[in-house]
Amino acid sequence: MINVIREPLIFEISSPGKTAFKVPVLDVPEKKELLAGLPLRADIEGFPEVSETEITRHFTRLSQTNYCVDLGIYPLGSCTMKYNPKINEKVASLPGFTQAHPLAPEELVQGNLELMKTLEKLLLEITGMDAITLQPAAGAHGELTGMMLIRAYHQAQGNPRKYVLIPDSAHGTNPSSAHLCGYTVKEIKSNERGTVSVDDLAREMNEEVAALMLTNPNTLGVFESDICQIAELVHSKGGFLYMDGANLNALAGITRPGDLKVDVMHLNLHKTFSTPHGGGGPGSGPVAVKKILEPFLPVPVIEEIGGTYYLNYDRPQTIGRVRSFYGQFLVALKALAYILSLGPEGIKEMAETAVLNSNYIRKNLEGLYELKYDTPTLHECVFSDKYQREYGVTNLDISKRLLDYGLHPPTMSFPLIVHGALMIEPTETESRRDLDLFIEAMKAIAREAKENPDLLRTAPHITYVRRLDEVQAARNPILRWEK
Amino acid sequence: MSYIPISQEDRQEMLALLGLNSVEELFSSIPEENRLRNLLNLPSAKSEPELLSYFEDRSKKNTFDQYVSFLGGGAYDHFIPAVVDYLSSRGEFVSPYTPYQPEVSQGTLQVIFEYQTLICQLTGLEIANASLYDGATGAAEAVLMANRVKDKKRILVASTVNPQYRQVIYTYGKNLGLEIVELPYNQSGQVEIRGLQAALNEGTAVLLCQSPNYFGVIEDIKALAEIVHERGAMLTVAISEPLSLGLLEAPGKLGADIVTGEGQSFGLPLSYGGPYLGFMACKKEFVRQLPGRIVGQTVDAEGRRGFVLTLSTREQHIRREKATSNICTNEGHCALRATIYLETLGRKGLRKMAWLNAQKAAYACEQLTSIPGVRARFGGPVFNEFVLEFPRSWEEINRKLKDRGILGGLGLKEFPGLDQCALITVTEKHSREKIDLYVRALQEVLR
Q1: Which 392-431 residues of chain A touch chain B by CB within 8 A?
Q2: Which residues of B touch A126 (CB under 8 A)?
Q3: Closest CA to B8 of A179, A41, A212, A356
Q4: Cβ(A280)–Cβ(B99) under 8 Å?
Q5: Is B51 inside a domain boundary?
Q6: Low-confidence ranges of chain B (pLDDT < 50)
Q7: What pLDDT is stored for residue A2 in this prediction?
Q8: What CA–CA distance (Å, rounded) separates A305 from A315?
């Protein structure tokens, strides 16, 4: 590897008079007095002045300090960091799509509407649901939208209800989304298998509960096998079953949430359907529902009459808009390209291989790392640092040491029911060689934890920067460059 | 084109290691009766060439490119320098996730730190977050933030704010018991001061206005700030055309407490509405209530500068239901594009680009209003959008302009009394020739 050059902030390499862009000459008569009398700015103080070479080197050098899926395994549990097919990027960059104004007359964007409608239909087939909106911009936005649909339904019956039940293994966005929709969250304890206990749920379920939010498979990678019973219980009190579809990669082509009596769910196109994570977005979080919730979907809804597509805003019971325009259109195109390139066999093979790869890692690391729940898992497995803590080594140290091996660590921040969690989701796009690299590194680290725990506590050693002081960052926040 | 690098042989060996005979056994935790017996009813797999032609065919069904467009209203057609596409396409920027492991994500983190700095410089405020979904959700988040800061439920929203932004504010606000009041506008197309004064009371958390507003008119932010601050409320300015900040005084310098908006103008293609980029900046004192991720500077074990995600105790993964927002995945890659765009145009370029927009819009407005029966509807100053009033209904004129290859603007019939009006947007991409084409077409239509 080329030794990476330390790159300053752009503001620190700026010098007066440089520019990377020649602004076109004005081709209409200039009015010098235009906007006179308004508070105008003489200058954008602090804004950089650099040449195009410097811009290119700046971002190229910065890029080389990033780990990414194109480089190797990125086994962040619940994030489904699979390979991003390159044809999808090409498809989404066709000028016929990128240059379309969102308020162009519908008859001039029939191609766009047809593609969105097609994606909707395919996602409904995959999930077994009845209706869908592509508007939500990310998974958490989808959760919020789903909660809003539920609330609108209950409101229409005269009582929006008070509570949303959420298992303690849930991702943090679940309680946050429910709260943002005006609900009080009640936590449901997981049982010894790491799943929802039907008896506990029965105790908490009543007619003030609007919904249960369930991730399936859950964040331990365990399938909630009582899901149909759970749904019936929730339904018996007039509540809805919301499914967080973050882990759909384990189920697509194997089973369908709609057939499991789920009423509403979101999908993460940037997880299951391979669209790139972009260093933290854009994502896309379509929400699929059963018939009963369809009238409440955000506007507009895409409809078709005799091969002509249009946007329907005339939906009296709609919750309204949750975002401008129609969602993350280019992301939707990439997801559609992915589904069309896989086909029905490919989708099934995707889920099967994701589960196979995860179990392969689990089997190889069992015994070296603690498995708090030994329940069978699907697409991800959650170990803990219990054995390593004996030597004063935590999941953070293990993760940082993995960086020295040139690999990305697993998720550590949840599930909260596993202390010191190492949540591993390899996805189906890892080769045996890459899986083995990860396994061998984890084995070596387990050895190092015993023999030389300091090596882990001071890791990483060979990265672009060493371990960063997060406490200082929060205590004395420096959130922008200043001269 | 195959994305699964596990061969049949690998599969058999891996199953053997697991002590299984078939892949089906991996799914034994899913009750038999819940498992699909057949393949999904999806189109059969396409090869790469087939896939490309499929999408090319659909893109050709889009025929908007045969028209000269003057559409804006929240989405703007600006030139994108080649370096933006080139650099942002690097796999090291496209294929990582949120920088949870800062030691191997310094590229992403430093870019966001630079982005936060640029947003602060543009808005004249002290801190900015790492991005939100878009301008509309940014406006909604700003309203919720003001509600938390002030612990008051009355929210004043100018009716000159982009209608989609107002709809999203309403969708978010109605479940939280917020009282959302829309304020009238005056003949200048600005917030009517008397209406504002009448609506302000002790329970008011915030006034949210847009500048330039949906009519393209620049609001008197200083005056609005003084009025709302006197009553103990906050001022939030939403911006849908942030290129205006190259020319107009930073709202933070004029008294705005929160500035939020849509960053699409900064290097993001129109893309039929998304992905776009919500930005948000505020005064330092409100940092604990700011939604979304924030990057901060720190040092590593050897004392070298580095960047990390920080102040995460505001966020859902720590605070769960008590978080300032439920946002997790944001618009990181869009923020990267905006950063490259802004640094490429730079200090002088952004200003010149903004000036070009304002001049061309002024020219277009002058030429169009020289046609008998056509007049500027509002008296207030504008940047690159303006509202014209026509002698007949816009619907009819629009249709006839379209027959002549012009998408002449956005109708405003959702505003009472403005059905003979349209919002017209002009950017640096409109040559004089294109503007003159519009003028001639309108002359014919009105003849």
Answers
A1: 399-400, 403, 408-409, 411, 413-414, 428-431
A2: 40, 42
A3: A356
A4: yes
A5: no
A6: none
A7: 56
A8: 17
Range of the domain at A430: 345-472
pLDDT tens string B179-226: 999 999 999 999 999 999 999 999 999 999 999 999 999 999 999 999
Chain A 430-469, CB below 8 Å of chain B: which residues?
430-432, 434, 458, 460, 463-469
Q: What is the pLDDT of residues A22-81, one digit of tens each?
A: 999 999 999 999 999 999 998 999 999 999 999 999 999 999 999 999 999 999 999 999
- What is the per-residue DSSP string for B103-155? GGBHHHHHHHHHHHHHHHHHHT-SEE-S-BS-HHHHHHHHHHHHHHHHT--EE
Q: B320-373 pLDDT, tens per residue?
A: 888 889 999 999 999 999 999 999 999 999 999 999 999 999 999 999 999 999
Give yes or no for residue A370 having a pLDDT over 70: yes
- Is A109's CB within 8 Å of B272's CB? yes
Which among B71, B167, B273 has the least Cβ separation from residue A320?
B167
Average pLDDT over all residues of chain B: 97
Does B4 contact A478 at a Cβ distance shorter than 8 Å? no
Q: What is the ipTM of this complex?
A: 0.98
- Give yes or no: residues A373 and A313 share one domain: no
Residue A25 is assigned to a structural domain of this protein: no
Element (H, E) at A289: strand A287-289
The minimal CB distance from B269 to the residues A62, A99, A466 is found for A99
∠ Cα B180 B183 B185 (to 5°): 155
The two most distant CA atoms of chain B are separated, in Å, by 85
Residue B97 sits in the same domain as residue B160: yes
Whether residue A86 lies within 8 A of chain B, CB to CB, comes out as no
**CB count, 10 Å around CB of B66?**
8
* Same-domain pairing of B304 and B432: no
From A312, A340, A368, the end of a domain falls on A340
Same domain, B331 and B355: no
Domain assignment of residue B425, yes or no: yes
Residues A285 and A403 in one domain: no
CA atoms within 13 A on the CB side of A419: 5
Which residue of chain A has the CA closest to B294? A479
Nearest by CB to A138, which of B62, B113, B133? B133
Say whether pLDDT at A1 is over 60.
no
Residue A17 sits at the vertex; the CA angle it makes with A12 and A22, to the nearest 5 degrees, is 110
| Final residue before a domain boundary, out of B317, B341, B365 | B341
Q: Are residues B86 and B73 in the same domain?
A: no
Question: Do residues A361 and A236 both lie within one domain?
Answer: no
* Pair A189, A146 in one domain: yes
Asked if A277 lies within 8 A of B96 by C-beta distance, the reply is yes
In a domain, residue A49? The reply is: no
